[in-house]
Amino acid sequence: MEFWPFWKFLRWQDVLDILIVAYLFYRILLLIRGTRAVQMAAGLSVIVVMYFLAGELKLLTLHWLLGTFMSSIFLVVVIIFQEDIRRALIHMGRSPFVRVQTEYSQVIEEVVKAVSFMAEKKIGAIIVFERETGLNEFIESGIPVEARVNRDLLISIFHPTSPLHDGAVIIREGRLLAASVILPLSTNPHIGRGLGTRHRAAIGITEVSDAVSVVVSEETGAISLAVGGKITRDISAPTLRKMLSEFLGFHSIEPWWRRKIFK
Ligand SMILES: Nc1ncnc2c1ncn2[C@@H]1O[C@H](COP(=O)(O)OP(=O)(O)OP(=O)(O)O)[C@@H](O)[C@H]1O
């Protein structure tokens, strides 16, 4: 009953307002999860807490110093997170319909061709697709490439004679950003005993982010796909194409008439 006055003054605009802000926070958290931005955000919150404590304890100089810093905190945040903000804005401004055929279907096709070849020749590989969660933290451990995804490029990177063949490649928005990337290994004890570090790394990155990773086994030539900490082993090239299209959102934005006619 005590809450009644509160509900009485609640307008539908307030509900909408709260929902939009909650959604924005949710998207920001998704975007920075697994990146250095999380540690930086934690660091900034320590400074905010120290500022209020200094105020309460009347530590004048410290309070003044932190206050001066906090007055420009907005600028600091923009500078520190410029990369993430840029990515978020590009993401928001992009119409899903524009992305459809051009970007992802071509990228998937090139990846499927490269993976089929590598599977046949038993060339070990890990290809990671970044989705919402930023993977900058891991990209920085590798060698920058910044190139359009292409079958031959992928094969030459993973060829055993290539200096870049160890580790994974990371693809963001259809561009191959880095090679020789070190991924976190999965610590899941329930993963099959036969799986070595390549497969554990491919699963590991999907445990700490929403990325999708594709692995080719050097030992058996088997193709596997990991997402959400789970791996689907020994899949065919058509299955890989289908799963990638599904996980990268291609199917959902394909025109309905196309789906109906071609299925
Ligand atoms: N943390 C890591 N991040 C990225 N790649 C890794 C990582 N650890 C190992 N690798 C890759 O995996 C290779 C070793 O694979 P290993 O034989 O141990 O695993 P596997 O799962 O049995 O794979 P395969 O079936 O291809 O033999 C390394 O040469 C390296 O390229």
From TrEMBL:
<keyword id="KW-0812">Transmembrane</keyword>
<keyword id="KW-0472">Membrane</keyword>
<keyword id="KW-0548">Nucleotidyltransferase</keyword>
<protein>
    <recommendedName>
        <fullName>Diadenylate cyclase</fullName>
        <ecNumber>2.7.7.85</ecNumber>
    </recommendedName>
</protein>
<feature type="transmembrane region" description="Helical">
    <location>
        <begin position="60"/>
        <end position="81"/>
    </location>
</feature>
<dbReference type="InterPro" id="IPR034701">
    <property type="entry name" value="CdaA"/>
</dbReference>
<comment type="similarity">
    <text>Belongs to the adenylate cyclase family. DacA/CdaA subfamily.</text>
</comment>
<dbReference type="InterPro" id="IPR036888">
    <property type="entry name" value="DNA_integrity_DisA_N_sf"/>
</dbReference>
<comment type="subunit">
    <text>Probably a homodimer.</text>
</comment>
<dbReference type="Pfam" id="PF19293">
    <property type="entry name" value="CdaA_N"/>
</dbReference>
<keyword id="KW-0547">Nucleotide-binding</keyword>
<feature type="domain" description="DAC">
    <location>
        <begin position="82"/>
        <end position="237"/>
    </location>
</feature>
<dbReference type="GO" id="GO:0106408">
    <property type="term" value="F:diadenylate cyclase activity"/>
</dbReference>
<keyword id="KW-0067">ATP-binding</keyword>
<dbReference type="InterPro" id="IPR050338">
    <property type="entry name" value="DisA"/>
</dbReference>
<dbReference type="GO" id="GO:0005524">
    <property type="term" value="F:ATP binding"/>
</dbReference>
<keyword id="KW-1003">Cell membrane</keyword>
<dbReference type="GO" id="GO:0004016">
    <property type="term" value="F:adenylate cyclase activity"/>
</dbReference>
<dbReference type="InterPro" id="IPR045585">
    <property type="entry name" value="CdaA_N"/>
</dbReference>
<dbReference type="Pfam" id="PF02457">
    <property type="entry name" value="DAC"/>
</dbReference>
<feature type="transmembrane region" description="Helical">
    <location>
        <begin position="12"/>
        <end position="30"/>
    </location>
</feature>
<keyword id="KW-0808">Transferase</keyword>
<dbReference type="GO" id="GO:0006171">
    <property type="term" value="P:cAMP biosynthetic process"/>
</dbReference>
<comment type="function">
    <text>Catalyzes the condensation of 2 ATP molecules into cyclic di-AMP (c-di-AMP), a second messenger used to regulate differing processes in different bacteria.</text>
</comment>
<keyword id="KW-1133">Transmembrane helix</keyword>
<dbReference type="InterPro" id="IPR003390">
    <property type="entry name" value="DNA_integrity_scan_DisA_N"/>
</dbReference>
<feature type="transmembrane region" description="Helical">
    <location>
        <begin position="37"/>
        <end position="54"/>
    </location>
</feature>
<dbReference type="InterPro" id="IPR014046">
    <property type="entry name" value="C-di-AMP_synthase"/>
</dbReference>
